Amino acid sequence: MEQGFLEQEAKAASKKNKTLFSVLTIVYVVLMAAVCFAVKDMLDFDDVRTVKVVVCLGVLSGVMLISVVIGLIASIRSVADASRSLLLPFAERTKEEAAHLINREAAEGKILFDEYIYKFTQGQKPYGARVVLLPSYLLLGNGMGKITAIPREHIYWLCAQVGRKGSSSFIVRLLIFTGKKTFSVEGVDVEHVEKLAERLYQYIPNVFCAYDPFVLSYELEKLFDKNRAEFLKFYEEEKNKTAQE
After folding, report:
1. Cα separation, 47 vs 166, whole angstroms
2. Which of 34, 48, 70, 115 sits 20 to 30 Å CA-CA off 179?
């Protein structure tokens, strides 16, 4: 039986997660073995400090093991029921209903946009956040299997918001304003994310096209958080202007 879009995504994410958990576990075991070998001649179990260190390492190992087991169980369950991977911030449908709609639209070839937030060279395997646009939803995949499904009718505006992280390296966010909150996906290639936003404007009109998004995005973020009514008023005014042009 042919797998649906979400089932394929859940299976791919599960494979990545299993690999990640396995690598982390191996690295942890190797490091612990190296530490134990290096200090084995210094251990004195009659010393309270030694006992405390050993107990702490035992607890840390237990937490590590439990985390790996929980992660593996979550990955297996997401493959068995792909709707578990969905996050529905607007809760306008059940997860099962949303999963059915997403799978149906993808099967009908209605994927309008499908890109990763990071730019990849030819032959390089994609990873990290993914942005997929369907007639019903804008999907934001976090690379670990969770997919936030934002109904398109709730999206006001999106843009590539360029900022600075630390003292030198640039970051860029695909910032999405909705009726409930702002969502963002972070990247590092400014030009790539700006092109993603430009392509998405074919389907989600840029109602603030007359403004510089570099400045406006920060101002609108503050306005959105402090005075939602004023934000909506400004949005409606610009939307009407755009429609009249």
Report:
1. 44
2. 115
